[in-house]
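Running this now, will post back.
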Amino acid sequence: MTTHTRLDTTPATSDWRTSAACQGIDIETLYSDKPSDQHTVQRICGSCPVRVTCLRDALGYETSTYQVFGVAGGLLDWQRKALIVHAQLGERPNVQQARVLASPVFAGFMREWLDWPADRVAGELRTFGVLAWPVTVRLALWWCGGRGSVLAPLPEGDRRVQWMQVRDECRPVVEMLRGHGLSNRDIVAYLGVAFHNFERAVRSWRSADASVQDTQTQQQGLGVAA
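Update: finished.
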């Protein structure tokens, strides 16, 4: 089982919209934030012959005309934002390879991994001789209807909720992303988590830091080495 890994450099054409499968779809549906409308558009995108070109244009890597709202290239707004963050980290998906991974040829495999994080799926693919960057796999998972979260599924018996998992597993990557000057909204998109869960995890980190600081201050006041 193989698929190509060459970086895709084919430029987008200017008239691809005339071949788009969403021709005739109401504009309000295309830009709707209702899950039902978004799922409808994503199903249409799934069979669109110009999905790859649409996504390139929506991301605006070269033109800085990033599409903020609606579904484009088969992705929701937060998923496209996550790819922009990846690009800022020097990671761009090979969209042609992602299309192959999301095709019926690989569907039987990808369906088993829809809840897995992309780096883990990339590792599984390597066992089949398929070399793909995690960001490429993440795009393929989204096109297959997967979560594409950075977080791995919780093991059986683990009763943590999402904010607790973010608290326990994501601080190093959050600090790395902040080091790149990224906003909380950007970080939430990259992680693939709910914003309120991210905020709660951040509050937990701050509380823990304050507790450590208080302990150190008390020790210093008592003349105890920290």
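The radius of gyration is 20 Å. More later if anyone needs it.
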